[in-house]
Protein 1
Amino acid sequence: MAVKLRLARHGRKSIPFYYIVATDSRTPRDGKFIERIGSYNPTTNPATIELNFDKALTWLMTGAQPTETVRRILSYKGVLMKKHLLDGVRKGAFDEAEADKRYVAWEKTKISKISDKIKGLDDNRIKDEKAKLEAEKAIKEQRAAAIAKKYAEAVKAQAEEKEEEDANNQIVEDVVVEDTTSVEVEASVETPAENIEEVSQEPETNNEEESTEK
């Protein structure tokens, strides 16, 4: 039986989650498996990998063939490096102590690289959040400026409308005053003529009374 190390898909639609499994190469991708040796979540950054190192190494040493994706995962976790060193010990290239020493040095370098990558991701995330906040602040300031401008224009339009209304009211008042003045002038011109007529009539009355008395 040929054994493969591959991914078995789980999770919801658009949110994949995988088991890393050892399975018969003839079994469908998401069918039954012999043993689950880990999990892989690609939706996080960096991807979340949980792996039973010893089981994965045992399957590799007994001839199990990983798929390309699983091979990259095993390389990332150091399983392939460990297998390579054990193969060197078995061939007599170096002893087991030297193999452990080399693996520890590789692991230290790998951890340093992973830490630098995570730090870089954190720095980029902080920069992105800062840039996002600055963009939101700029948008809020633009909206506030637009609202203030609109309010100022409304106040100005209202003031101009009131000023125009006051000017029209003043014109109406001036016309009314002018008309009233004209009426008073005409009345004052007519009054002396009436007085003259009354005065001219009064002597005639007196003469009539005098003639009657005689």
Note: Confidence is low (pLDDT under 50) at residues 207-214.
Protein 2
Amino acid sequence: MGRWLASEGEPIDEGWGIRTLPGAQSGLALSLESFTVPGDRVLVESPCYVGILALIRALGREPVPVPVDRQGLDPDRLASALQRSESKLLFTVPSFHNPTGMTQSKARRERVLALTRAHGVILVTDSAYGDLRFSGNSLPPFRRLDGADHVIHLGSFSKSLAAGLRLGYLIAKHDLLRRMAPIQEVQTIAQPPLMQAVVARFLDDGGFRRHLARLRRALKERRDAMVEALAEHFPPGTQVSEPKGGMHLWVVMPEEFSALDLHRDALQHGLGFAPGPLFFADGRGTNCLRLNFSTHDPATTREAIARLGHLVHRA
């Protein structure tokens, strides 16, 4: 794993270490249980990955939403939230954000990093989609920026290699790893060595790089098909994100629109999507929906969006 990251220009620096995980979700849970206790406040993006909201609530912590805009996490709103609440952690998906698909610029990452460092807040970055860039230039992960000693970086092969392959990794400074070690030992005991060996071989012999090239081409074709179909079949004024990687599009409809009503109607017609309120700690997003463009070929996607658009116009 270290050799692969170094070949991608993201080596593991001296004083840092890497640990395997059964997927990035396990790293989110490990970070929460290692650095917070029930009742603590945890900063999350708004909207944010639905799995972190569920995890925070299941473990008895309180999510504190920080809005995102078209460039990702809003540092001005983050500064305000840090002043208002005594939070222990901030969770962010900086590249190809789930659900919006947005990517934080380097300047924005530097500001978020500085704010969390100044307030003593551990910054947990979920890079599960980081390998799925299909256009544009790569940006340095938070852990590679100056002053990143308080960063915990999570990665995963579940999105880039196989959904059923529950193998991820965590990179952090050794002092943070030592604080997490007792919790990780009782959570997972050990990762299966055979699975790690198979993935390591795939990385070393170039198979993963070839696989990523094919996957990135397919994802771009599927994103393009969905964006084009939405422009053709959804009402004028619909706002659609156009991510440069990842798996998701974020669709914002007029304020009076109900994604929950559409969701119920869509399920009855064999269509599925994720309605916006799932991704907000405070229940907002009733006029939003997340669409996954990664699953189906372009022709299937175009047909499905046409059918969904018909339901939107009928609503």
Note: The mean pLDDT is 94.
